[in-house]
């Protein structure tokens, strides 16, 4: 297997039309943190005159809460965010993930891993004590050593080829060494579930997503996703990671950290708070009278924010 090269620029000159998306995991109702991501991706698509899609990320069946996806979609509609195409459900795409996985296997990018969680945790503990890498040590790279296959991993390259660099439109230049910071990562889990990384990259590629806008908690996954795109021969979209919303303990808002569902009776209050979190200058700070006014002002403010971020890049 040779490390895949960066995908060459394709096409006949004109950049593809902007396609953005919001990809919630249905583990609970929409909360303020996920509203911020939804709003940012919506505004970004609109500011680029593009299309906005919704994908329900229910690939992780054990974590999916029944009814949560419908609840999220209803809340988005109540807040005035309507997807331009029918939502995609990851739970309906297993066959497609299998197809992509088989292609990666054929390309020699994937190998079976027989390590148990316990064995990996032990080797990481030893590595920690020795102050060496915390990445998966590659125990099964050259064979299963008589153990049964549990998970399937993508082989990351060694040396300079492992360094992935990208420019995040909000967070600036990012670099990650996949070999030393991540290691060969799982595409198919021991419980038979497809891993998030494989599903996201396949879905974004199939939907022709050009602009990924999401929370900064996913910044750390991006290098893996870019490498996977290269292995699959898929184009790399542009990335923009917005600051995550945290609680008073500094933890990312989630169901586990006590995020409460949004007050759907008062969408404008929550939307203004989300715009403030994104640092949008909404003019004289007067509450918009309608969702239409809010989105018009917020789209203008988002474009200004993007221009500011770009200027910062150049200075
Ligand atoms: N499903 C992920 C989440 O809810 C988002 C994935 C993405 O936007 O790429 O955190």
From TrEMBL:
The keyword Nucleotide-binding applies. L-glutamate binds at residues 21-25, 57, 196, 214. Catalyzes the tRNA-independent activation of glutamate in presence of ATP and the subsequent transfer of glutamate onto a tRNA(Asp). Glutamate is transferred on the 2-amino-5-(4,5-dihydroxy-2-cyclopenten-1-yl) moiety of the queuosine in the wobble position of the QUC anticodon. This is Glutamyl-Q tRNA(Asp) synthetase. Residues 1-17 have a biased composition (Low complexity). Binds 1 zinc ion per subunit. GO terms for molecular function: ligase activity. The keyword rRNA processing does not apply. It comes from Paraburkholderia gardini. It comes from the Bacteria. Keywords: Aminoacyl-tRNA synthetase, ATP-binding, Ligase, Metal-binding, Nucleotide-binding, Protein biosynthesis, Zinc.
């Amino acid at each position: 297997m040779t490390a895949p090269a960066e995908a060459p620029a394709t096409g006949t000159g004109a950049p593809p039309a902007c396609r953005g998306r919001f990809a919630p995991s249905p583990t609970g109702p929409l909360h303020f943190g996920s509203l911020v991501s939804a709003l940012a991706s919506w505004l970004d698509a609109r500011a680029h005159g593009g299309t906005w899609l919704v994908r329900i990320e229910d690939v992780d069946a054990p974590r999916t809460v029944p009814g949560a996806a419908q609840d999220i979609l209803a809340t988005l509609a109540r807040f005035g965010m309507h997807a331009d195409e029918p939502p995609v459900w990851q739970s309906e795409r297993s066959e497609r993930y299998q197809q992509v996985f088989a292609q990666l296997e054929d390309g020699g990018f994937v190998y079976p891993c027989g390590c148990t969680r316990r064995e990996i945790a032990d080797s990481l503990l030893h590595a920690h004590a020795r102050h060496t890498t915390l990445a998966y040590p590659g125990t099964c790279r050259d064979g299963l050593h008589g153990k049964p296959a549990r998970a399937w991993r993508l082989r990351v390259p060694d040396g300079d080829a492992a360094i992935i660099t990208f420019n995040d439109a909000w967070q600036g230049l990012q670099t990650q060494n996949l070999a030393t910071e991540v290691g060969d990562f799982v595409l198919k889990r021991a419980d038979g579930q497809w891993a998030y990384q494989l599903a996201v990259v396949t879905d974004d590629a199939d939907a022709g997503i050009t602009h990924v806008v999401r929370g900064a908690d996913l910044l750390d996954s991006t290098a893996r996703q870019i490498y996977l795109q290269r292995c699959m021969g898929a184009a790399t979209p542009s990335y923009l990671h917005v600051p995550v919303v945290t609680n008073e303990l500094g933890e990312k808002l989630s169901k586990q950290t006590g995020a409460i569902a949004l007050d759907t009776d008062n969408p404008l209050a929550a939307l203004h708070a989300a715009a403030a979190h994104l640092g949008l200058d909404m003019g004289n700070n007067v509450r918009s009278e309608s969702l239409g006014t809010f989105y018009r002002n917020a789209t203008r403010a988002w474009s200004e924010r993007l221009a500011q971020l770009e200027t910062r890049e150049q200075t």
